[in-house]
Amino acid sequence: MAESEARKAYRREWAKQKYADEPEKHRAYAREQHEKHKAKKRVANAKYREENKERIYAQNKVWRDANKDTVRRNNLKLVCFTPELMAEVLVFQEYKCAICGDDLRSRPSKQTHADHCHDTKTPRGVLCTQCNTGMGLLRDDPIRLQKAIDYLNQPTIEKMKRRQK
Questions:
Q1: What is the pLDDT along the chain (165 residues), one digit of tens a residue?
Q2: What is the pTM for the complete model shown?
Q3: Which of 54, 104, 149, 160 is deepest in the core (most CB within 10 A)?
Q4: Exposed/middle/buried for 126, CB within 10 Å: 0-12, 13-18, 19+?
């Protein structure tokens, strides 16, 4: 037998009042249920994501396209930047890459990178894609960078030729 709307409303109000009277008891129960069913839920969620991969990807793409500012802000937040700090640094750097000096205004925003120290998470400056990649490949290590500079100034082949003379 179906429950009447009045009965449903009464039960909702009763539940709200019970929760209001003893919120910690209900939170503890919810935590207990979460722990009890966590593994089962994780498996079910993974299965759902696997079966609906294309649909989820399409939904996410629609959201990202509609919320580009939010996506950009969140990505900057990961490296301890804000859009305001990014704009301030770009003005200070005269819209040029901090390493090579290329004009960053002519590049799409995807090719402008907020550089940060990976150890301390502190912002350092704004770089172009190539310089940011180079820093990353050299693991942000000044010693490796100095060795790369020394190598460019005096390649191994030149050293070999000098020794043979």
A1: 578 999 999 999 998 998 899 999 999 999 999 999 999 999 999 999 999 999 999 999 999 999 999 999 999 999 899 999 999 999 999 999 999 999 999 888 778 999 998 888 899 999 999 999 999 999 999 999 999 999 999 989 988 888 887
A2: 0.64
A3: 104
A4: buried
The answer to whether residues 102 and 128 touch, using CB atoms and an 8 Å cutoff, is yes
Angle at 89 between CA 85 and CA 74, to 5 degrees: 35
Contact 33, 43 (CB under 8 A): no
CA–CA dist 153, 150 (Å, integer): 5
The domains located in the chain, with CATH, are: 66-153 (3.40.1800.10)
Q: Distance between CA atoms of 155 and 148, rounded to whole angstroms?
A: 10
- Give every CB contact of residue 126 below 8 A, 6+ residues apart in sequence: 86, 89, 90, 93, 97, 98, 104, 112, 113, 114, 115
* Cβ(126)–Cβ(89) below 8 Å: yes
